[in-house]
What we know:
mainly alpha
Amino acid sequence: MFMKNYYEILEVNETASEETINKVYKFLAKKYHPDVNPENKEFAEAKFKEISEAYEILSNSEKRASYDTELKEFKDSQNPTVNYEDYQNLKNYCIELENKINYLQQDNLNIKNNSKIYSENNYNNYEENNTNYTNQAYNDAINQAYNDAYINTLKNLGYKIRYKKTFKDYCKGFISLVLTAIIISATAYICWQIPPVRNYLKELFFFLN
């Protein structure tokens, strides 16, 4: 099933104003008018007809609203559906995820039992710290397992995964940049205080003197 995208034909976005559509149409109509393209008249006629058809719909508010509804339904219908093979892949991922969780739960139980033995030997502080650490590691591992299975499932279904940087990521990058600049500046200053190094740099960059 195919549906013409009149917005792409007129080279405008779906939120373009009526004024923008009118201006773009006049420009494209002039550009692809058959009389202006005698050397490629058949292509120009087809293009001009397509542009006029798109303009007829998008320049009319009622027709445009109806078209927008149809276009949205068409795009929704093009989304990938889950077939039997995809279902089996998803089922296998769920089984794998369940096995990982069971393994982590058993491992966490063993660690807690070991911590209890240490506690009975008056290692209270060790038990508290170790329990907090293992609980955190357990929770992180489960979250990572869920995340990996979810991402792998989406990739197998044909989705493209894009990661968007958070404000925290930008802050980390800025802090790293500042620290790098400070380290470089401090290193340069220390090197400058060493006479042989300073004299060498002066000779190397004599044009700065």
